[in-house]
Amino acid sequence: MMAQYLTIKRDNPDGLLFYRMGDFYELFFEDAVIAAAALDITLTKRGKHLGEDISMCGVPVHAHENYLSRLIKQGFKVAVCEQTEDPAEAKKRGAKSVVRREVVRTITPGTLTEDTLLDSKRNNFLAALAEAQGSFGLAWLDMSTGDLQMQPLSEHSVAAALARLDPGEVLISDRMASREDLADAFQPWQDQLSTLPASRFDSTNGDLRLQAMFEVKTLDAFGPFSRAELSAGGALLDYVELTQQGQLPRIAPPKRLSEGAVMEIDAATRRNLELTQTLNGERKGSLLSIIDQTLTGAGGRLLAAHISAPLTQSAVINQRLDMVQHFYDDHNVRENLSGFLKQVPDIERALSRLTLARGGPRDLAAIRVGLALTADIRSCLESAQLPDGIETALDDFGAHGELVLTLSEALEPELPLYARDGGFIAEGYAPAFDELRSLRDESRRLIAGLQDKYVQAAGIQNLKIKHNNVLGYFIEVSARHAETMPAGPEDIFIHRQTMKNAVRYTTVELGELEGKIASAADKALAIELELYDELVQQTTAQAEEIALAASALARLDVASALAGLAVDQRYCRPSIDDSLSFNIIGGRHPVVEMALAKDPGLEGAGSFVANDCYLQDTSQLWLLTGPNMAGKSTFLRQNALITVLAQMGSYVPAESVQLGVVDRLFSRVGAADDLAR
């Protein structure tokens, strides 16, 4: 066994190895020392290797995701090694044969898909940065949703782009890692950097890999990608395939974010404005925390993406604002929509898990519920005049009635987490399965009847028939009743095992019945798993259409949430154009205003004092002076935040705003500023 472990560890040297042994994942040698310290679990020993004790620790399989989460948050990579056959199969090859094991995936900070390891309202991006022909290219993917994007960059914009994405993991070449001129850009991301050989960033191979992935002969339909973007995209897909052992998730065709398509906000300004987290790294007190009224996980992620990347195209901004205004103007429609959105599960992530063969019956149910709700939402929203954005969303819902009906007929109301647990196919869906299930359940009722029979035969009221994975079914009585148990050569009870407080027996009749139960249960589970695979195949065959519907639900959620915010907080619709105007009347700092309203005990609590800011072509500069703590930073950032809100497509805290599109934003922070407090 240890020889097998060492071979697998040699092939997976970069992470901790979770080595499956029955109901535990075990770690050995240096991995055990590291994991025991990181997880605060007991470090033990198991045998010797080259004369030295072998360090060992382990975590139970049923709770391993909690331990994985803690390790990933500390920056570790974990290779998960599973048993690929059961011990009985191994014994057929010889008494000393070792159960076959294989690494089924390598979990890294950027390749998470499980809900238990992710924040429902936060994207988890895996990013790759490459350089070719003197320019840079960035590719990023959220594996839990399949969203893939690429962007050309100049060297000076690398830091700003990484700050915008806040990726869980960044792939760079070993050659790039050694460049001193990029040290400042990479400094905040040292814990997220994963260095790969430069050969993985070959642009020609990247182009071919992307073409093969999306089954096209050219990527021209997706965008005019640069060599650097192709290098980054190819390296990213290569890494995903490597860590997932060839099992790729559903990945949408790449979208290209052209240079200048979003407002450029450098890392320092982004941090100072506290867009998605405060200077202390907390979500509470950030701009995102006070505007987020989304009701779905996908909507929350989309809102965070919008706030991180305000647009610079006035037409697209106004299209988003039109959607918000529709819900702002119609309270009843907004309330009805909210009622449906509250019931929408995370379809995107459920779909990703199913395509990775990592899902379960509950993921199928999530997709069924979400798709069924699109029909209700369409009925709720259909009217004579709808903004283009809402019309597009309703079109993107598609028609999924047949799939919804199939999943509704197939699945039980209460579902297990894993398909291997069985018990999820509804009665009446598959007659052949119903027949086997009935036989299995009838056999279990016979066990109960047999127990009553043996209680009478032995005259022992606390006699029980129990089951475990080692002995199967057995009869158990307490140690003090064992003396009166009729277990002689002529009796039906056959001794099997003596425990400290109990003695176990069997009978020929019980053994025969156990064989029938095991056979019926095994056959029933096998058919149930076949049915599950068929349902997954039917669902993933419509992956692109389902993903489109999920995206539409997220867009509607964001628009409705921003409309509710605008009504609650008295925000106005900004007027966005391509002029040089910057005219804000009665502007208010959204975070400070909310903090004052929620905590009347704050010093100076009360209504926020609104103020104006007026810049235009003939008056492009204001010089603001005053003593420390006079509010200069508050005013400066107030106007910056209004700009961000306006260009992400939100109403803003002001009486009126007329704004020419801002392409770049800078802001300082006062030495003692903590504006939310």
In terms of per-residue confidence, which ranges show pLDDT below 50 for 5 or more consecutive residues? none
DSSP strand count: 22
Residue fraction in strands = 15-25%
- Provide the residue-averaged pLDDT: 92
- Placed side by side, the strands forming the largest sheet appear as 3-4-2-1-5-6
Oligomer: single chain
Query: Which CATH C-level class of the largest domain is it?
Result: Alpha Beta
How far from one another are the termini?
58 Å
Count of runs of 4 or more consecutive helical residues: 23
Cα gyration radius (Å): 31 Å
Summing up helix and strand content along with how strands pair, one would put the structural category as alpha/beta
Helical residues, percent: 40-55%
The CATH superfamily of the largest domain is identified as: MutS, connector domain
The dominant shape is globular
* Domain module count: 5
Biggest sheet features = 6 strands, mixed
CATH architectural name of the largest domain: 2-Layer Sandwich
The CATH topology assignment of the largest domain is Nucleotidyltransferase, domain 5
